[in-house]
Amino acid sequence: MTTFILNNKIIKTPEHSGITLLDFVRYQQRLTGTKIGCREGDCGACTVLVGTLTNDTMKYQSITSCISPLGNSHGKHIVTVEGTNLKNKLTIAQEAMKANYATQCGFCTPGFVVALTGFALSNSENNYSNAIDAISGNICRCTGYKAIEKAAHQVVKKLESQEKNSFKWLIENEFIPEYFKNIPQRLKDIDVKDLNQPKGKYVSGGTDLYVQQADHLADNDVYLIAEKHYLKGITIENKTCTIGTNATVSDLWNHTELNSILPNLRQHLKLVSSEHIRNMASIGGNLVNASPIGDMTIFFLALNSNITITNEDQKERTILLKNFYQDYKKFDLKTGELIKNIHFKLPNKCSFFNFEKVCKRTHLDIASVNSAIHISIEKETILEAHISIGGVSAIPKYLHKTSDFLIGKPLTLETILEANKMLQKEITPISDVRGKSDYKRLLARQLFFAHFMELFPNNFTLNDFVKHA
Ligand SMILES: Cc1cc2nc3c(=O)[nH]c(=O)nc-3n(C[C@H](O)[C@H](O)[C@H](O)COP(=O)(O)OP(=O)(O)OC[C@H]3O[C@@H](n4cnc5c(N)ncnc54)[C@H](O)[C@@H]3O)c2cc1C
Ligand code: FES
Ligand code: FES
Q1: Separation between Cα atoms, residue 166 and residue 318, nearest integer Å
Q2: Which of 116, 123, 310, 393 could form a disulfide with 397 if both were Cys (CB 3.0 to 4.6 A apart)?
Q3: 133 three-state secondary structure
Q4: Are 245 and 230 in contact (CB under 8 A)?
Q5: Nearest to residue 8, comparing CAs of 87, 64, 108?
Q6: Residue 166's pLDDT is what?
Q7: Are 91 and 159 in contact (CB under 8 A)?
Q8: 2-84+180-224 in CATH: which number?
């Protein structure tokens, strides 16, 4: 039985754990405030909050319920828009949407209200930029976004005087209803034994699988791995970072130490989907989806990461991520094997990391071409270089020859221009909906140059490269 708290009600359901949470709340529970728009995680009409209790602390995150399996709610608190309602008055988020005329047809409004309520409940610092991030997964086709942005601003203002994430304050100040205060104890009382039969398709966050095969997963065995503890966690020890493959993109975003080691991490991760999707999207799912433009895959290839793979008998093997991919969507994983973790040597004071991405829209879009670089320099000489690039090959591509070419060379414009010639020979872009092959070659070059302008602004300017274009 999948067991969880839905708003203020305990649910124990024998429903197939592979159906979507959206279908469960709308069709089984008749909570129709949660809307169906795209069913692909793109519009946010189906936004709900997931509350998780860890060491006596509740953490709420917004997700798109259309691509989340019901079974991932086991042991959690799920909040739909109905669950945010107060008796006889509007909550702060609802009132902000109303007061700023941020709703017209109203179809998107529950999603925005839930996401803004999630922002009030979250640990993220209270500022306008974070409030806008919190609704980055919500689309409105009617109002234009100015009114919605004003509503977000109003929520931020109301939160200014409070200790964030304090249930007591949020209840007293009409952000959330009173029943929230008993949720931690009620979750403790729920019996959350592992439900899984170890068979069927591995599903972590579900953000890739449910876009492609939601109906199939609702009828067949699913092996839900998102809550497996041995696949979780981020540790930094002996100059190495190890990330359990169930860590989500948001887990990286929230990891203080990792953010101090990779100071632009959040700036890079902001380019990955929306906050709602980042809250579900696991690193393992990104690697095994094997998309030639998977952002996290490109990111970790340039960090020259290793992956540890485990099988049903808990036998482990470790390989370099750059040797994992064999051909389009073909990779070195046998039946029953799981990626357990990914690990890489931390950049040091002589080494520099950068990630670049070009897509048709700045946010919530997959890349046309993306690229990452990790390069070590001493006395203006390149000691080590790892470059990856997506969207220009059948696989997420580690540029072996270009990386090797750079080693031992001086950090000069000539070196970079020569390396670009090598890069152009290593890539094989095709024309598709993301752009023509020539355009992708151009993007590959521009992103390669952009790495050096970003990392060494005193050495290289745009003009240097324009002259040689
Ligand atoms: C709206 C939207 C926007 C998106 N934007 C981006 C984007 O900007 N950039 C980007 O890179 N991706 C994007 N994605 C794709 C997706 O979110 C990521 O690839 C995500 O990391 C997948 O993780 P998951 O946990 O959801 O994977 P799942 O869907 O759960 O799994 C994907 C595959 O991996 C397998 N799998 C999962 N974990 C393991 C494991 N540990 N070992 C072995 N196999 C495993 C599953 O069996 C499945 O085949 C987007 C998706 C959506 C819906
Ligand atoms: S219905 Fe569009 S994100 Fe779920
Ligand atoms: S008010 Fe109509 S979609 Fe937003």
Answers
A1: 43
A2: 393
A3: helix
A4: no
A5: 87
A6: 85
A7: no
A8: 3.10.20.30
Where do the structural domains in the chain lie, given as residue ranges? 2-84+180-224, 92-176, 229-467
Which ligand 3 atom minimizes the distance to the CA of 140? 4
Average of per-residue pLDDT values in the chain: 95
Q: Name the more confident of 364 and 372.
A: 372
What mean pLDDT is predicted for residues 112-135?
Answer: 95
Ligand lying closest to the C-alpha of residue 45: 2
Question: CB count, 10 Å around CB of 232?
Answer: 18
Ligand 1 centroid to 285 CA: how many Å?
A: 4
Query: Which residues, including other chains, have CB under 8 Å from residue 138's CB and lie 6 or more apart?
Result: 43, 44, 45, 47, 108, 111, 112, 115, 276
| Ligand number with the minimum distance to the CA of 108 | 3
Who contacts 142 (Cβ-Cβ below 8 Å, separation ≥6)?
A: 104, 105, 108
In this structure, is the dihedral angle defined by the CA atoms of residues 345, 347, 350 and 355, taken in order, positive or negative? positive
Kindly give, in sequence order, each residue whose CB lies less than 8 Å from that of residue 456, ignoring residues fewer than 6 positions away: 352, 411
3-state secondary structure of 298: helix
Q: Which amino acid residue places its CA nearest to atom 3 of ligand 2? A: 41
Judge whether 2-84+180-224 and 229-467 match in fold: no
Is the minimum distance from the CB of 331 to ligand 3 under 6 angstroms?
no
Give the model's pLDDT for residue 140.
96
Only one residue has tokens 């990286």, namely 252
Question: Please, how many CA atoms are within 13 Å of residue 253, restricted to the half-sphere of its CB?
Answer: 26
Spacing, Cα 323 to ligand 2 middle (Å): 35
Instruction: Give the pLDDT band (50/70/90) at residue 196.
Output: low
- Select from 230, 276, 288 the residue to mutate for testing ligand 1; criterion: most ligand atoms less than 8 Å from CB: 288
| Residue 36 CB–ligand 2 contact under 6 Å | yes
Query: How many Å lie between the centroid of ligand 1 and the Cα of residue 201?
Result: 13
Domain 229-467, architecture per CATH: 2-Layer Sandwich (3.30)
CA 97 to ligand 1 center in whole angstroms: 32
The fold for domain 92-176 equals DNA polymerase; domain 1 (1.10.150)
User: How does residue 415 score in pLDDT terms, banded at 50, 70 and 90?
Assistant: very high
How far apart are alpha carbons 136 and 279 in whole angstroms? Answer: 12
104 pocket-lining for ligand 3 (C-beta < 6 Å): yes
| Spatial distance between the Cα atoms of 429 and 219, rounded to a whole number of angstroms | 37
Comparison of pLDDT for 144 and 235, the residue scoring more: 235
Measured from the Cα of 35, ligand 2's closest atom is 1
CA distance linking residue 195 with residue 187, whole number of Å: 16
DSSP 81: G
- Please tell me the distance between residue 245's alpha carbon and the centre of ligand 1 in angstroms: 11
| Threshold 0.70, pTM exceeds | yes
Reduce the DSSP state of residue 262 to 3 states and report it: coil
If you measure from the C-alpha of residue 45 to the centroid of ligand 2, how many angstroms do you get, rounded to a whole number? 5
